[in-house]
Sequence to fold (518 residues):
Amino acid sequence: MHLSKPAPSQGPNLLTLAAVCLAALAMPLSFTGPALALTAIGRELGGDALALTWVTNAFMLTFGGSLMAAGALADQYGRKRVFLLGVGLFFLSSLGLSLAGSLLWLDLLRAAQGLGAALSFASGLAALAQSFAGAARTRAFSLIGTTFGIGLAFGPLLCGYLIQALGWRSIFVLAGAVGLLALGLAAYCMRESRDPQAAGLDWPGALSFTLALSLLTYGALAAPELGWSSPRVIALLLGSVAAFWLFVALERRAARPMLDLSLFRYPRFVGVQCLAAAPAYAFVVLLVLLPLRLVGAEGVSEAEAGRVMLALSAPMLALPLCAAWLTRWLSAATLSAGGLLLCAAGLWWLSRYPQVSALQQTLWPLLLIGVGISLPWGLMDGLAVSVVPKERAGMAAGIFSTTRVAGEGIALALVGALLAALLQQRLALISAAAPQALATAASQGALGKLAAVGELLSGLAPEALSQAYASAFQRLLTVLSGLTVASALVVALFLRGVGQEHAEETAAADPALESSGG
Fold:
């Protein structure tokens, strides 16, 4: 009789884990697939460089801007209820994306898809924190990282073949089908749970934060074409600073804030947020920039681009789980910082080669980047929910995921702007066109649309244009390598001595942390 007792509780827990993993699998498909499809989308629906950029950034913006609010909603109204709402919205928006007839509708539905992903992801992580404890929780969250790895490894390859065989709309059908499976499984097996201390959503905080993030992203996206000194860009960036200042002021006065600012007094909490943002510059921006370069600038097919991307993300299949296993001997700080340093080495190595599609040269640098980022990737989610009391798991998941995804959205905008600026510098050396014409051409070139650049800057030899683009991209990779080294040092400093199990135990035992968490 004793042996049969765990079965009733453990079975639903494992099915809940499967549902959250399916929802997590849909997210990298929604991220990498549209990046590969941008060229095909532009051919069918048209649109300038800024409008096409929003196909990826609309998803990232609503995803990152909604995660903290999604975590708070999950704590108050129930993790299962919010998860079902999010996955349902994700499925419906994916279906709508497969039928979109204009770029405007595509961008709007991508924003809705990002909102659904935020609701399902934050509530799903919070539900797992209630279903598992100790080493089992570590393994569960590492499995989420592995699931992301599967989506990142095979997503570009699968989406590339789908785009070639069935068209770009098929990638949204695929993401919707995965979301529908998660919806059915969660409706059947997920238990409802909520925070008994929850006191309502902090709407002023949620709205001011989303406004700050939106203005910053839009300003960074518009800067390459309009110029950083443009009155519109300056107004957007100043508005972002003002909205963020308002957000901090509101959170300090709120009785139950969406973001508990007092947590930033604790080094390990700050370290986890730094760790959350680090992969944005080390890895995530490559998931968008490399397909644009491969398909648009180097002229390979979507399927071939998917094969190149597989070299970058294949290590994510197994290494996140290995990272959790290695915490028996090495601290999370050592593993995470060491992984980021490997990633930085891979970025620098990749910057030595002018043609990314030449896999006989770039295979090892791409694999090294993937190996390096896999180590912190398998530890981040578990660390995020272990630095606050269990009852505030939704808030912790929301803050961590917001830092990660908001960092990714901002990184995409800023890195895209940096690539355009670097390309404009190179173009100025080989073309006598006016600065505004160079800026417009560089914005197109940052999306890999070298043919459009050639039309804007007539008389420019294709070989010279390709060399200018390759040189700008190589310089960009060097900058990203330096940023990743700096991130590794910050993570090592703030997470010094913190291991996965140790973080869980101290989060539960630290009375100061409990009082600050509510």
In short: The two ends are 40 Å apart (CA to CA). Residues 6-45 form the longest helix (40 residues). The CA atoms of residues 283 and 373 lie 7 Å apart. DSSP finds 19 helices and no strands in the chain.
